[in-house]
Structures are given as structure tokens and as C-alpha cells.
Structure to design on (112 residues):
């Protein structure tokens, strides 16, 4: 997975926008961040719920891990994108988008 792949997946989510977040690209829906790209390392951050974060980190050690400290406890999750395939990354980004998108947008019909 490359940063361009992640950008393409993130921006394909309904009403997703890219914006700067402390010098790194972030992807937002209705102003809320669901994914960031860390340009100093091959990792992204996705915002998951606690149960998904724990299950995915346990199932993919060394690939998916909670962000240390407060932000990790709030669902921020690192993904080493050089170690994941397109399907897993797409699933993680879609989960993160659903986690922060407003309910009205989450339940709206999606394209084909």
C-alpha cells in the first residue's frame, strides 16, 4: 500500500475531504478526522471503536496497534501500511469513516 492508495480510498468515502493536520495529510468527514498519513514513517492512523481496535490489533500484531496513550484509548490506531493489502486497508478506512461520520450520512445509500 502506498500513500496514494490510501488517499484514493479515503477520498472515495462520502463527503470525505483532505486537510492538513499538524503538517500531515488528514481525511475528514463533516470536519472529523477518520484517517491521517504519517509521512515520516509508512503508517497511517485510523479512528476505530475500542472493540474493533482490540480485535484487529490482536489479529494483526506488528501491523495494527493502538496509538500510545490517551489518543489510543479513544480509538486512534496505527496501521503500518507497507504491511497490509488493499482489501484490509479499504476495510479499515471504511470502518474509521463509519466511526466518525454522522448517523444520517452513515445510513444514506452508497454508490454501486
Amino acid at each position: 500500500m502506498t500513500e496514494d492508495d490510501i488517499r484514493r480510498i479515503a477520498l472515495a468515502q462520502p463527503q470525505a475531504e483532505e486537510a492538513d493536520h499538524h503538517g500531515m495529510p488528514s481525511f475528514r468527514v463533516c470536519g472529523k478526522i477518520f484517517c491521517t498519513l504519517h509521512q515520516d514513517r509508512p503508517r497511517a492512523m485510523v479512528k476505530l471503536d475500542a472493540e474493533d481496535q482490540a480485535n484487529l490489533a490482536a489479529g494483526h500484531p506488528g501491523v495494527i496497534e493502538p496509538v500510545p496513550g490517551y489518543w489510543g484509548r479513544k480509538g486512534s490506531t496505527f496501521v503500518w501500511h507497507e504491511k497490509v493489502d488493499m482489501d484490509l486497508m479499504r476495510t479499515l478506512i471504511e470502518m474509521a469513516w463509519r466511526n466518525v461520520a454522522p448517523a444520517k450520512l452513515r445510513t444514506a445509500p452508497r454508490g454501486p
